[in-house]
């Protein structure tokens, strides 16, 4: 705790602290939302799903818990500030990418390694291969976010150059292209075009972060309030009168899903969240000058990737520990008893996750090798990132089931670990 207080006390006066606050609040919302959405039944075998499937009114709650746009927004703010500072010191785009992705790749490598070893051990002990595959799939759900986030980080130097020249025209154009993808999907005319939205939509939100960072989107109610109202109005119209579903997360069986791939409705939610953040930015920064709240924000951010990566593993462990042993009853999802039992469920998973963070958090906190800011090898960097992204993509798109001895695609794992090794070598070069 003393180290965290020291880190908090050493924060530069010019730091935009609300960026760290939003990141911390977003990770708490994501974890809580995922844990609340899970329902489990045990009748000699474990079964489950999402409460969104069986209790339709809960889909409105995704407007509060779908905060991935906030991650990309503040990621854009932090990325633009970091890249600008790096450029002023004479650093290259490649060295910035190598340094920026280190804190993402390092804890992810540990996560995938431990997950693979645990799956192998479970199968060696005679656990059903399909059950192992389902458990690994649930634990690996966070990886879909990393694919998109790593991709936009890699594209940051290019997109920031476009931002410096064209400003807000870039996210506006990206939003238009997302709309084109939506139309293609709804009309089944070149429907595959919609898959580009997996990148285009998140890039649009990330670009807004650039405008936040350089002042083109100033803080205060004059910009924040109109942006939030416009985004919320568009969201209501598109979901209630338009063709988009209410849920801001995917529901199996729905013809259109707002996250797979992302839609204009999700971008409307992103605009709402961005407007509220800009509106509250100045008072939030003032509040964060207090030592206690700022130290808490620093503490969460110091292990934020660890929390994100391992929170669904905590849910898997909780399911196995609490339901077959009948420590926790499993009434019908959506019943009053089920909602009451969410309290001990959340408390139990919080304790499990705290243990996982205590074990794996130091991997994230520990600084990795720093690349030479002025000269970094381009070919190894490209090859390494390609391997990492390809491996994560394969893991993210795989559904539940037996995908190999580790529960994950073996070629995908090989590609990922090879890419991570190449990147580590490139950072040391």
Automatic annotation (TrEMBL):
It comes from the Bacteria. Keywords: Acyltransferase, Membrane, Transferase, Transmembrane, Transmembrane helix. The chain crosses the membrane at residues 21-40, 60-83, 104-125, 137-159, 166-186, 192-212, 224-244, 264-281, 293-323, 343-363, 375-398, 404-423. GO terms for molecular function: acyltransferase activity. Signal peptide: none annotated. The keyword Transferase applies. The keyword Iron does not apply. It holds the Pfam family Acyl_transf_3. Residues 19-354 form the Acyltransferase domain. This is Acyltransferase.
């Amino acid at each position: 705790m003393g180290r965290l207080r020291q880190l908090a006390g050493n924060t530069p006066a010019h730091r935009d602290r609300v960026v760290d606050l939003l990141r911390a609040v977003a990770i708490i919302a994501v974890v809580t939302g995922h844990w609340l959405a899970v329902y489990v039944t045990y009748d000699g075998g474990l079964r489950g799903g999402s409460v969104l499937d069986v209790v339709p009114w809960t889909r409105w709650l995704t407007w509060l818990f779908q905060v991935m746009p906030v991650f990309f927004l503040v990621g854009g703010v932090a990325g633009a500030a970091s890249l600008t500072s790096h450029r002023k010191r004479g650093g290259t785009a490649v060295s910035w990418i190598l340094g920026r992705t280190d804190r993402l790749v390092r804890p992810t490598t540990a996560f995938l390694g431990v997950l693979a070893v645990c799956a192998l051990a479970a199968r060696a002990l005679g656990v059903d291969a399909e059950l192992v595959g389902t458990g690994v799939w649930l634990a690996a759900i966070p990886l879909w976010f990393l694919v998109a986030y790593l991709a936009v980080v890699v594209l940051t130097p290019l997109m920031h150059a476009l931002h410096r020249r064209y400003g807000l025209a870039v996210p506006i154009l990206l939003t238009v292209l997302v709309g084109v993808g939506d139309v293609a999907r709804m009309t089944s005319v070149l429907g595959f075009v919609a898959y580009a939205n997996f990148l285009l939509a998140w890039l649009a939100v990330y670009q807004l972060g650039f405008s936040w960072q350089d002042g083109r989107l100033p803080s205060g109610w004059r910009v924040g309030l109109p942006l939030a109202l416009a985004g919320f109005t568009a969201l209501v119209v598109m979901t209630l009168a338009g063709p988009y579903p209410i849920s801001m997360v995917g529901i199996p069986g729905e013809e259109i899903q707002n996250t797979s791939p992302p839609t204009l409705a999700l971008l409307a939610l992103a605009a709402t969240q961005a407007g509220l953040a800009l509106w509250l930015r100045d008072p939030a920064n003032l509040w964060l000058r207090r030592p206690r709240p700022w130290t808490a924000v620093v503490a969460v951010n110091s292990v934020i990737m660890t929390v994100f990566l391992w929170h669904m593993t905590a849910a898997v462990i909780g399911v196995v520990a609490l339901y077959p042993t009948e420590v926790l009853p499993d009434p019908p999802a959506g019943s009053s008893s089920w909602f009451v039992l969410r309290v001990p469920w959340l408390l139990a998973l919080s304790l499990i996750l705290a243990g996982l963070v205590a074990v794996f958090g130091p991997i994230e906190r520990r600084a990795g090798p720093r690349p030479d800011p002025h000269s970094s090898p381009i070919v190894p960097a490209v090859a390494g990132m390609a391997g990492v992204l390809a491996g994560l993509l394969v893991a993210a798109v795989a559904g539940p089931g037996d995908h190999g001895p580790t529960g994950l695609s073996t070629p995908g794992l090989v590609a990922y670990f090879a890419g991570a090794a190449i990147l580590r070598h490139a950072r040391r070069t």
